[in-house]
Structures are given as structure tokens and as C-alpha cells.
Amino acid sequence: MNKIRLILNGKVVGYQESRFAKEWGEGLFIYQSIDGREWSLLSFGGPPHAIAHDAEDRSTGETDSKGVDVYENDKISYNDLLCDSYILDKAQSRTVGVVRWIAGKCGFRPQEVKENSKGGHYIALWDMIEDIKVIGRVNNSP
To answer: What pLDDT score was predicted for residue 43?
Structure first.
């Protein structure tokens, strides 16, 4: 299953899932939903009821601490288990990052918003962060 968030003019307008269904003859079936709960199958002759959108955010397959799906371009806060300030003072340390596709890592990773001392941005590993909270979406529109 491949889940995508649909964006129009910088706002979330719906979701799309694609699935292979062997029981129906090895076809790709595409479903769309406005609320993420009620899904409708699009027709194969061109989707007449498709949700209009101008951008897409791919699902990372991760969820936050409340079970909310985490998507590409989500702004998240988390505890970075490798961060010195978290190790020294857990109560004071929350890191804010944006979920990006990191080509060199072949996957989605949280990239810290704050610049590090070398002018770059730290990239976290999903296994080394905890208490993830989705706090918004970064609008990539010009």
C-alpha cells in the first residue's frame, strides 16, 4: 500500500492510496478520501471524481506518539536520544525538524530546522528519536 497526502494551494485537501489486489485480477486500485477515513475507488477510465491537487506528500510509514501518520514535509517535534542536551536535561530538550527525503540515506528522515555549527542541519534516525509529535506542515509552494 502506498499512501499520499494531496495538497492544493498549500492546504491538505485529501489522501490517496494505491493497492494491488490479487483477488480481483492483479490490478492496481486507487482510492481517494477527503477525511482519511472514508475511501472511494476511482474509475479506471480516468477518475471523474478525483480530488484536485497540485502537490503530493508521500507517507513515511511512521506514526507520531498519538498514532497520526507522518508525511514528507511534516514539521515534527521529538526527543533526539543522541542529542547532548537531551542526555543532560530530558525535560528541557525538544528538537524541531522537517521530514525530508534524504537521497543519500534512501529514505525519509527528520532534518533538524536549527542550523548546526557548520551551517548544516542534523539528520536524525527514526530509531533514535522518541515522543514524536506532528506540529504542522511546511508549505513548499513558491
So the answer is: 52
